[in-house]
Amino acid sequence: MDELTFIEWMRRNGAGDLGDDCAVIDCEAARAPMVVTADMLLDGTHFSLAEHGPQAVGYKAIACSLSDIAAMGCRPAAAFCCGALPRDISAETVREIFTGARGLCEKFHVAIAGGDTTAWRRGGRLVLSVTMIGWADGCLPIRRSGAKAGDAIFVTGRLGGSILGRHLSFTPRVAEGRYLAERGDVHAMIDVSDGLAADLAHIAEESRCGACIEAAAVPVAEAAVELAKSSRKAPLEHALHDGEDFELLFTTAPAADADLLADWPFETKLSRIGRIEAGGLAMIGADGSRRQLAPAGYVHKFGEDA
Amino acid sequence: MDELTFIEWMRRNGAGDLGDDCAVIDCEAARAPMVVTADMLLDGTHFSLAEHGPQAVGYKAIACSLSDIAAMGCRPAAAFCCGALPRDISAETVREIFTGARGLCEKFHVAIAGGDTTAWRRGGRLVLSVTMIGWADGCLPIRRSGAKAGDAIFVTGRLGGSILGRHLSFTPRVAEGRYLAERGDVHAMIDVSDGLAADLAHIAEESRCGACIEAAAVPVAEAAVELAKSSRKAPLEHALHDGEDFELLFTTAPAADADLLADWPFETKLSRIGRIEAGGLAMIGADGSRRQLAPAGYVHKFGEDA
């Protein structure tokens, strides 16, 4: 599929006004500040086009960016999508990638407002790069750096084993993130992309603090149990260290945690898993023993390179 | 060079606050609206890392985006840079790419405010994707769609033969674009990336008009003359159809053109090359004959695929 055809096709199929060198974004002070996230996904690293199919790939490229906007407590507004296409990709495959991306954008009222497509001369694999902007709509964007000793630590959903499929089909926690920003009692937030332990370490590092979680409180996904059958690891290890859960991990003021659990209006599970402390990362086991929590996550491999 | 190391290195070396899921951009109504451009450059298509070297590659990735912002008459403000790195790339090469990008950003007071780096598991070539935002600072962004019959057509600089080196080292016409936006008498503008004829066709298409240029008025670059010695084409053909000049092509109201030429405060050459008309694209030759102007540009090839 040649590039001009694709841009024209995008325009006819609901992408924004792509007729200028730049997209023009109307800004109002009432919606400010703006947040921006940029991500690049590679075939064989973040997805396998051959294994997962083009619609799932387009969906994931948008969903990852939505999750970043959600983690700031903001409202996603516009996406800019760049793609490097294999020379031999079919027009139908490109359309399905776009269909997967557009469907999720529509669901969250995000405009595809610009982008760029280009093709490898030969031999290259698919690259998708999405930049997404969002608006704080009068709230303060929630940083990673605001956690304070004594804060309760929460996480949405269930963790671990996303490689069995959830990394392609997860629902970004946009509504949940927005709700938390509007409440105003969240101190720090991140989305779980590197793994619970690694992303908790990011909050701890940015906030210059430590954290202690309780093993029994970590919400373990069914997929983590399933994966443990073949991985020789415990389901909890998958919940702690698997990447790409795309759940929200956040901290609240000590006095606010009971109210938040009582008020929580979503079907999405919400778990209080520990407390922010001074010092390093620790976990209290089922037997009450306290041990250091390694901040390592690990990385998925797909397709022929797996 | 692993990814965490690179992000940390970027932070220490003057990139923006990369510690959150998104960059936070302060917006003021006085600077609105905002413009956004997204481009993706591939090794072997838009540059050759082996042939041109890493600093030139980083420079070009930023310069292309600056040129898009310039073509809207806006002030560039922040860049978001994503890179897919070959597995065997050296840390020194990555640093030099960043050095080339950062140097140009600093020159134009653009913050590197975010991004994402990832590495091919094996065999992939370098991909750089830059999204840049800019501000209209109270002017109206200049679209491609505003040209009117009777407008004078102008182009900055000299055209053709950029493949001999200028495509890597050009100075984006940011100051010139901003000056034109502040004057307020430019109807339509684009940067010459596909070639003069092809980009004039873009203005004509978006503005639902035609155009006629005079061959004798087209500013032909020295490089076009040089390239013509080996290409079996006339220098004018290179000026009309070579891509990646990154000059500004724009139209003004009929009454404004003499004033603009008289007022022009830049060393950058400014040429009045024709008029917007009804109908298609045409060119008047040196002999006074009028012929149709094909809107085709052509595409550079670099490195092993050339």
The coarse overall form of chain A would be globular
* Helical segment count of chain A: 10
**Largest interface in this structure:** A-B, 64 and 64 residues
Distance between the termini of chain A: 29 Å
Describe what you observe in this structure.
- By secondary structure, chain A is of the alpha+beta class.
- The first copy, chain A, folds into 2 domains: 3-135, 60s Ribosomal Protein L30, Chain: A (2-Layer Sandwich); 152-305, PurM-like C-terminal domain (Phosphoribosyl-aminoimidazole Synthetase, Chain A, domain 2).
- Chain A contains 10 helices and 12 strands.
- In chain A, the strands form 2 sheets. In chain A, strands 7-9-6-10-8-11-12 form a 7-stranded mixed sheet, with helices on both faces.
- In chain A, helix 4 (91-107) links the parallel strand 3 (75-85) and strand 4 (111-119).
- Chain A is globular, with a radius of gyration of 20 Å.
- The two termini of chain A are 29 Å apart.
- In chain A, 57% of the residues are buried.
- Residues 1-6 of chain A have low confidence and may be disordered.
- The interface between A and B is large, with 64 and 64 residues.
